Request: fold
Amino acid sequence: MTTSWTFASGLSATVAISALVVAYLRPPLRLLLTELCGHKDRAAFWTAFSVVAVTLVPAIFALGCWPQADPSAPSLLAIAEQVRWGMLGLAVSVIALGWILGRFIPRSPKP
Reply:
């Protein structure tokens, strides 16, 4: 497998995994944002913004990981390394989103 195809495979795998996470998180995120924003249009914007962030941050992390040009190096390991960096970016973006949303969720007073 050439270096370019290895890189494209790792990036594609990262984006696919991010898309699955977005598909899983989008419905509850939309409901939560509708409640927090108080209006469907505002919630739709912030949902779209969050989806873009959770998709692009892992892709940016994966773009920063270049496979070695050594033809004897296993392509699967290079793809796994790139996906690993992408998953780190995914974790960072999801944790940041959760932290930010958590700051805006009203807390009920303790009895």
